[in-house]
Design goal:
By secondary structure, the chain is mostly helical. The protein contains 12 helices and no strands.
């Protein structure tokens, strides 16, 4: 009996190729993988046998696999990039290699000294109320804590927001070409965010996710 790969039908009956093709994200279709094209050409009327359906699903799986692996690698790179922006091993006294390590650091609370390091390295955080919008702490409060920052750690919420901001500014730097451009971008209204400023959305996890998703779209050349 043929086992489905990406579709949920229980048997090898006639397959709707329109539905099957629509299940593939548009940017994967644009790659025009040869094995997918020969099925796509007659998808409206073609009736799949079990073997043909299996071949089609295998082609989809093999086509998408590199992107899945690339996505995993990107997540690891984002974690490492944020780790460096927050001072790395020198300040955190431990190694972060991936998102799971990052989770452990955040739950325990990143050192306040890491936030000081981030503020020194990302100048926009020292302007106006940017730090408060990004992390939930004012620049004045941070300055007052500066004398005993070595002994203190941030709350889990502040740690999570600081880490996410570091990931966002790192991702934006890659896309914009420089950190200076990324810092300017985060303060400007964005078309793909309904003309809202990215910095104004970082107070909530949902808003931060919207900013990250928009950056990903920019990376693939989608500006709206």
């Amino acid at each position: 009996m043929c086992q489905p790969f990406l579709m949920t039908e229980a048997s090898c009956k006639a397959v709707s190729w329109v539905s099957a093709i629509r299940a593939i994200p548009a940017h994967f279709q644009d790659r025009k993988e040869p094995r997918l094209l020969k099925f796509e050409a007659s998808r409206d009327t073609f009736k799949a046998t079990c073997d043909e359906r299996t071949a089609f699903m295998t082609a989809i799986t093999e086509t998408l696999e590199p992107f899945v692996l690339a996505g995993t690698a990107a997540q690891e790179n984002e974690a490492i990039r944020a780790y460096r922006l927050l001072g790395g091993r020198k300040i955190m006294k431990r190694t972060v290699r991936d998102s799971l390590d990052a989770h452990d650091v955040i739950v325990k609370g990143i050192p306040a000294k890491s936030l000081l390091y981030l503020v020194e390295g990302v100048r926009v955080l020292s302007t106006g109320d940017v730090l408060n919008k990004a992390i939930g702490i004012s620049i004045r409060t941070l300055q007052r804590r500066k004398t005993d920052a070595r002994q203190k750690v941030l709350s889990t919420e502040q740690s999570s927001r600081a880490w996410r901001f570091a990931e966002i500014i790192g991702q934006a730097t890659d896309i914009m070409g420089s950190q200076e451009a990324a810092e300017a971008w985060i303060l400007e209204p964005a078309i793909g965010l309904n003309n809202r400023k990215p910095i104004d959305l970082l107070a909530s996890a949902a808003g931060a996710e919207a900013v990250e998703n928009y950056l990903t779209r920019l990376e693939f050349g989608v500006y709206t």
